[in-house]
Amino acid sequence: MQHGIFVAPFGPFADPHRLMDLGRAVEESGWDGLFVWDHVLRPESNEIIDTWVALAALATATQKLRLGPLVTPVPRRRLIKLVREVLTLDLLSEGRLTLGVGSGTDTGGELARFDEVIDPRIRGQRLDEGLRIVAQLLAGEFVVHFGEHYMVDGVSAEPPTVQRPRPPIWCAARGTAMKPVRRAARYEGMFPIEVNHDSFCRALDEVVAVRGSLDGFDVCLRTEFDGTPPPFVDEGATWLLRSFPAVTDPATVFDVVIHGPPR
């Protein structure tokens, strides 16, 4: 199992220099990855820096860490802009990017206040359709697509990414819903949240039903804010992230980081 740190670029961590210091400490202390929330408005704090610029800073400050957003809401993104960001960050990090995606949430009004799509059913449709386009473009394919929610009229994206055929994609899944699990099974990983032992096991069974096995598939769980891992973490997880509240005292985070990952 690999171990990472999961923080929000909010409040005291709405400072790219502090995040870069954190990235260096995470790497030097033996952790495997550093992942950051991706939001533009939140109720916890209005001090928020851009996740993708922050990830670029982290890519330059580290050499080995796997980096990524958990999770980027594809339905509120311009697809070609997202593709260019992913492509650039994969090149900058020399192949250390994992793209975490989801349908988004309106906590804090980051959808409603900007006239974005709120209906969860439509956001799910946009995620499915948009993610297929993103994956194709990142893999270097020439895309012609006229769909219900998106149009791409003969486009390819270059230069090629370091990771081939493209950077891995992890999809968020929540609770007992199986449609997001089946979506994740079509890609390289799943980030299940708000699951218990029963729903976690059913999610893994569903992934196997779609893929045939869990080979080559990442399952990323997060701890409680106090560091307590899910009791079922050893039943299929490949990553465990030490998570922290949205607004956290940096000293607390650095203290956890410098003690290193669980052994």
Key descriptive features of the protein:
single chain, 263 residues, alpha/beta, 9-stranded parallel beta sheet, two-stranded antiparallel ribbon, 11 strands, 33% helix, globular
Low-confidence stretches: none
Q: Tell me the overall shape.
A: globular
Q: DSSP strand (E) fraction?
A: 15-25%
Report the order of strands and helices. Answer: EHEHEEHEHEEEHEHEEH
Can you walk me through this structure?
This protein is of the alpha/beta class. Helices cover 33% and strands 19% of the residues. It is built from seven helices and eleven strands. The chain has a nine-stranded parallel sheet, covered by helices on one side. Strand 9 (189-193), helix 6 (197-211) and strand 10 form a beta-alpha-beta unit. Helix 1 (16-28) crosses helix 2 and helix 3 (79-92) packs across helix 4 (120-138). The longest helix is centred in the middle third of the chain and has 19 residues, at 120-138.
